[in-house]
Design a protein that fits this description.
Elements: E1 5-7, H1 9-14, E2 16-17, E3 21-26, E4 29-32, H2 44-47, H3 56-61, H4 68-75, E5 78-82, H5 84-90, E6 124-129, E7 132-138, H6 139-144, E8 147-155, H7 161-164, E9 180-189, H8 190-196, E10 206-214, E11 220-226, H9 227-231, E12 238-243, E13 246-247, E14 257-259, E15 272-278, H10 285-288, E16 317-322, E17 328-329, E18 335-343, E19 350-356, E20 364-365, E21 367-368, E22 383-390, E23 397-406, E24 431-437
Parallel strand pairs: 1-5, 6-15, 17-24
Antiparallel strand pairs: 2-3, 3-4, 4-5, 6-7, 8-9, 9-12, 10-11, 10-15, 12-13, 12-14, 16-18, 18-22, 19-20, 19-23, 21-22, 23-24
Bound molecules: ligand MTE and molybdenum atom.
Amino acid sequence: DSRYKSYTLSEVAKHDNKNVGIWVTYKQGVYDITDFIEKHPGGAGKIIMAAGGSIEPFWMIFSNHNKRDIYDLLESMRIGNISKEEASTAVEGMEDPYANDPQRDLFYVRNHLPVPDVDPQTYELEIAIEEDTKKVLRLDDIKKYPKHTVSSTIMCAGNRRSEMAKVKAVKGLSWSVGAVGNATWSGAKLCDILNDLNVKEEDYEHIQFEGLDLDPSSTPYGSSIPISKAIDPKGDVILAYEMNGKPLPRDHGFPIRVVVPGVVGARNVKWLGRIIISKHESQSQWQQGDYKGFSPSTDWDTVDFSKSPAIQELPVISAICTPQSGDQVVVQNGKIKVAGYAWSGGGQKIVRVDVTIDGGDTWHTAEFFGQDLSKPGRHWSWTLWQVEIPVKEGDKNVEIWAKAVDSMYNVQPESFKNIWNLRGVLNNAYHRVKIDLK
Ligand code: MTE
Ligand code: MO
């Protein structure tokens, strides 16, 4: 394109610091990202790794960048093209780092980085107190602890983000209602392992977890939970080696993942490589610079991630799974069937799900499938529900709304407008589904 100035790769390479400006390349394009560095949602430290070179290897890893609005943003910073002679060599020789990822199953998968291939024979879990390694457990050592089974839902903080994004754009994967799954998990209790090390709750604040999946700077995925949750036998935190009675699938953390019931997905660290007992929270991007809530008036120019606490327990949420938006639903005996899930963080029980098809004039109480026999404060699994609702004769379409109530009588907020946040997390407003009637 002749509108653009042409640059050699060595000219680009010199622009790797703020004094001369920071440039990157993407495909044929050359971009001046100097002013954007500090605004980068993933942190200035990450984007700077691409300074003076191609951003492509990083975007192949952080595949959340492969989106229209991000390409547009990058394009707005374009200053030119790579010289014709070099343009073809610039994109060669790049392998897809996700090529070795496993086949996917039904339980949702959220991996920030490529799935590591861990050999169970040589697997080691390091346990450290601050910087000092205290113990190394092999898979067999972990299996020697009493086996504990918990049913627990794991939900991403971004579940239902696509609905919040309709209020105003947010950054993140555009999840519908499916960034959640429920399974039985078996493994060793984390409290047993902490007790073996004689760790006392009063002496520390946080338990940090590191995965064996590494970003391009060799930093592992990581996050942390308060020690009070980790050390409480009733917290049911386990180092799981089984999911639904079988060895963990690779996608879900083989050979060991920590399951933190009642707590946001991001803290349920997979391919667990290290546990650190500490006075401090994990310093990882996913604990410090992501997975936090903000006021609807906070934008990317004003956001200060240090001002909000990391999400731990998630608020009460529900979703309608059938019917889905846009479905043509057959009315049977003057009624339609509506079904879905509800769940609340922190072990709260779902005590009621209300559904309406007339904008809230009439609410119908749903029935629950199965019985939740877990003890108070330990309701870690989702509640599946169903309800039949009479429709008015002649109605051609309706909008179904659902809201759940938990055992603290917390209820979902009515609309997304007033809970909107720039990262699109905690998307728990009433679920609304528009359908046509037949
Ligand atoms: N653990 C590691 N090591 N790496 C990751 O990228 N993603 C987290 C969490 N644990 C992640 C991780 C996030 S954000 C979520 S929502 C859950 O895993 C998803 O778990 P699942 O893929 O088993 O459904
Ligand atoms: Mo997540």
